[in-house]
Specification:
The protein is an alpha/beta fold and 439 residues long. It has helices at residues 30-36, 56-61, 95-101, 106-122, 135-146, 160-163, 166-169, 224-236, 248-264, 282-291, 301-304, 306-313, 316-319, 325-330, 348-357, 374-379, 383-388; strands at 12-17, 42-46, 51-54, 74-78, 85-91, 127-133, 153-158, 182-184, 187-190, 241-245, 272-276, 293-297, 336-337, 406-409, 425-430, 433-437.
Length: 439
């Protein structure tokens, strides 16, 4: 339908398909997207955000064909028995398509940002953190902040792959993008993929073999030696670092790399952020405390993918300890919670609820021993989230001298915690000024 209403030659994008929910239990193919249109480049993005499927026109537009080798940290899916691409692009193999997706007009960017800002305000978001920006996106968000299109405070993580040498040669200046409401934050690296995409890097094989390979454990997006070098260079340069890591083998590499960087160049309060930290083992959580690493857990995984993590990807034992926030508490590791939007909808109370109950979509409780209390879960999306990005002196709690950023709810999450997701945001205020009031 979208292709029929789009001029020939223009790109058509679809988002958030989930192969485990399709009748065939597989990814779409290049041929199937060719059936949608041969006159448009067509791209469908997996719900994890870590893979895409492209039709022939889209592959041709970015120069991917049978002679294109797999890039470092990525895989180009192939038609069985040949080297011809089948349309599936995993991890770094999808980056050329991601660049095309970001190639939109300033007017379209304005419309998207205004819509997103309104949606975020309606669910009570006062500070939003972008998990990885390009220089162009950082410039656009800075502009829209100055114009008042985006009223929220923003903390932007520059992608190492996008800012490149400017991070090391002195050309990068966070002040180029800063406004009274925009700050540049930790430099972002991506060390592996996603569990539900079979690209998270595990120490033991997936529960259900991927493509019949009983030994398959996923793979790193950055080779271990290169990760060590990048972390060391960024650490020496004085940056806070944020690294995406889902699988426990990836987390091991990340912790090893950061430990080596700290040994070479000690920093008293580094707050290296381990994004997702989904498969953290207990011994790894203990190391986080020793190293000054702070995880940002995606605990809503329990709701959106908990049943499938248990039954398909991980098996019951490993699934029960995804996002192990209770272990973090026991070891004194401070953490935040996030939703990874647009992977899941922006709904802060869902993040809080999932930490408290760890209930799956199917109604089971996934690892009850990892549940935490309501107040602790609220801290993970307020003061502890602010602390994680070095903003605790001005936001995250209501205190004299801090920004008067706050949300008025229709009731207290403490009264009936199980029903907190039904609470309405009555008012969202930033700096004491109302940016949203429920109609």
């Amino acid at each position: 339908e979208q292709a029929a209403n789009t001029p020939a030659g223009d790109w058509v994008f679809g988002f958030n398909y989930d192969d485990t929910l399709l009748a065939e239990r597989r990814h779409p193919t290049r041929a199937e997207l060719d059936a949608v249109s041969t006159e448009h480049p067509v791209v469908a993005t997996h719900v994890s955000g870590h893979m895409m499927v492209a039709n022939s026109a889209a592959l041709a537009a970015v120069g991917i064909d049978a002679d294109t080798p797999d890039p470092e940290g990525g895989v180009i899916g192939r038609v069985p028995g040949s080297s011809e691409p089948n349309g599936l692009l995993e991890e770094t193999a999808r980056l050329p398509l991601m660049s095309r997706m970001q190639d939109i007009s300033l007017l379209d960017t304005y419309r998207l940002m205004k819509s997103a800002a309104n949606e975020y305000a309606a669910v009570g978001v006062t500070t939003a953190q972008s998990g990885g920006v390009t220089p162009e996106l950082a410039t656009g968000l800075s502009l829209f902040s100055r114009l008042g299109v985006v009223p929220q405070r923003l903390v932007l993580f520059p992608f190492e792959t996008e800012f490149g040498e400017t991070l090391y040669n002195g050309a990068y200046d966070p002040g180029d993008y800063a406004t009274d409401r925009v700050a540049m934050g930790a430099v972002k690296l991506v060390a592996d993929g996603s569990i539900q995409g079979y690209t998270g890097y595990l120490s033991h094989p997936y529960h259900t073999p991927y493509h019949g390979d009983a030994e398959y454990r996923g793979y790193p997006s950055i080779p271990r030696e290169k990760l060590f070098a990048q972390v060391a260079a960024l650490h020496r340069a004085g940056y806070q670092i944020a690294i995406h890591g889902n699988g426990d083998e990836s987390i091991e590499d990340i912790l090893d790399a950061f430990e080596a960087a700290q040994r070479e160049h000690p920093v008293a309060d580094p707050r290296m952020i381990l994004i997702h930290s989904q498969m953290s083992r207990q011994d790894q959580v203990a190391r986080m405390k020793e190293l000054g690493v702070t995880p940002s857990f995606f605990t809503a995984h329990t709701w959106y993918w908990g049943d499938r993590h248990r039954d398909i990807f991980l098996g019951p034992e490993r699934a029960a300890v995804i996002s192990p926030e209770k272990w973090a508490q026991q070891y004194g590791v401070r953490f935040s919670s996030h939703l990874d939007t647009p992977v899941t909808p922006m709904a802060p109370l869902q993040a809080v609820w999932s930490q408290v109950f760890r209930q799956t979509y199917g109604g089971d409780v996934l690892g009850p021993e990892q549940r935490i209390g309501v107040m602790d879960a609220l801290r993970a999306v307020t003061i502890d989230a602010a602390w994680q990005v070095f903003q605790e002196d001005n936001r995250g709690s209501l205190e004299p001298g801090k920004f008067a950023d706050m949300v008025v709810l229709s009731g207290s999450p403490l009264d009936e915690p199980m029903n907190m997701r039904e609470l309405q945001v009555e008012q969202t205020l930033i700096g004491g000024a109302t940016i949203y009031r429920r109609p």
